[in-house]
Every structure is written in C-alpha cells, then in structure tokens.
Design a protein that fits this description.
alpha+beta, two-stranded antiparallel ribbon, two-stranded antiparallel sheet, 36% helix, globular, binds iron/sulfur cluster
C-alpha cells in the first residue's frame, strides 16, 4: 500500500500529540514489533551499563522473522501498575518511558513509518542505484494526534540524523538480503547452517560490545566489512 504522503526529515508533519501526556498506548501490547537495531543495542548497553546478555534477562528477547533472528523490546505481563497487561519493561509506573533520552529508534519514530525505495540515478559512470527512505504517518496509529505540525528531525531527536538515516538504510537492506539468503537455505534443508549464521550475525552486531570512546557508525561499518 502506498502511503498518502511522504516526508523527509526536514519536513513538517501533523504528528503533534501534546507530548504524550497521560498516554502510553504505543508502549503497551506491542508484541514483538519493537525490533532493535545494533544502534539501539549500543545505546541501551552503554547508557544502562548492562551487556546484551544482561538485557536478555528481562528487557529484550529474540524473535525470528523470515528466518532471521533479531532482538526486540520485551513486553512483560503481571506488573503492579498494569496488572496482566503486557507492557514494555522500560515503562514506569507513571506511564512514562524510563529511558526516554536513549529510547530505541522505532519508539522515536511512532506514529511515523519508513517507506524504503531504490532510485535509479544517471551518472557519468552509468546508472547508479541510490537506496534510501522517506517517512509517512501510519494511519490510525496514535490516538492523540492533535493536528499540530512538528518538524520530523525534531520529533526523532537523533543526533547526527543524516548518518543515522544512512545506517538505517544499510541495515534495512542488509536484513532484507540476509532474509532472502536464509529462505534459500531453509528451502534446501540447511537448518543447521541457518542457526549458525544467525548466531554469528547476533554475535557480530549485537553481543560484541561497541566501544564507548568510538563513533558507533564507524564501528558498524567495520563490522559490515565482514560481508564484503
Ligand atoms: S500513542 Fe501517541 S500520544 Fe500515546 S504515547 Fe504513543 S505517540 Fe504518545
Ligand atoms: S522503550 Fe520507552 S518509548 Fe519504547 S516502548 Fe518502552 S517505554 Fe515505550
């Protein structure tokens, strides 16, 4: 389905929601949908001082989509404040995000989505493919949209957004290719190989700590070179 309108990060979009006052709808009963990128894990591990394995004890979990195993935020039930309702482990009793300053990318994005696209560009060296994405408002997602326009880059609040968008694009297409490769292996009955490459991917991009003193994107690019 093509979205009605696409936006760049420099555009204004009607996504104002009164600073989410009194609402935590998108932090509840989200199943496995809040999938985490290596950048999210770098942020969570460094700000919380907990390793990937420690986060796996209560805040995140692994889930398989199209044969690829990725981490997502864990929704846990039976809390004092929310009863049996499944809520994110980072949602506090006042209904606010306890890790707001370093919350994952998909949390920052809501109620926006990303529309990925490969454009063909004519260059002196022939046709070149440019991969990227634009934003769109996910219909009927946030119940509190009040019609106020907000600049998308301000909404996301991600430092060095251009670099982050390049990373998001690279990671999206990496996962897409990875999933296609896995589907072929599964068809060929290579289940053990699928398990092994999933474990290697998780180790390389998620479990292996990112150095705090160094730029995340530089470290990510180094790790991506394994697949060149
Ligand atoms: S559903 Fe909308 S108003 Fe509610 S917490 Fe999410 S973004 Fe904020
Ligand atoms: S990390 Fe924060 S914003 Fe994201 S789902 Fe959890 S409580 Fe909500």
């Amino acid at each position: 389905m093509t979205p009605d309108r696409l936006y760049t990060a420099r555009d204004m979009a009607k996504i104002g929601c009164d600073d989410c006052k009194g609402c935590s709808y998108c932090c509840q009963e989200m199943g496995e949908s809040v999938v985490l990128t290596p950048f999210d894990i770098c942020e969570l591990t460094q700000h919380l001082g907990r390793s990937f394995d420690e986060l796996m004890e209560d805040k995140i979990e692994l889930y398989m989509t199209d044969g690829m195993v990725l981490p997502n935020l864990k929704m846990s039930g039976e809390t004092k404040a929310y009863g049996s309702k499944e809520v994110c482990g980072f949602l506090n009793e006042e209904g606010r995000c306890s890790i707001h300053a370093f919350r994952p990318g998909l949390c920052r994005l809501f109620p926006l989505g990303r529309n990925y696209e490969i454009k063909q560009m004519e260059t002196e060296d022939g046709i070149k493919e440019i991969k990227g994405f634009q934003y769109f408002i996910v219909k009927d997602s946030c119940p509190n949209l009040n019609g106020t326009k907000v600049k998308i880059e301000k909404w996301l609040g991600i430092p060095n957004l251009k670099k982050n968008e390049e990373f998001i694009t690279t990671w999206h297409y990496f996962c897409k290719d990875f999933q296609e490769e896995i589907q072929e292996l599964l068809k060929a009955g290579e289940d053990d190989k699928v398990k092994k490459i999933n474990l290697s991917m998780l180790e390389l991009f998620y479990r292996k700590p990112y150095e705090k003193e160094r730029d995340f994107y530089e470290q990510f690019e180094e790790r991506m070179k394994v697949f060149d």
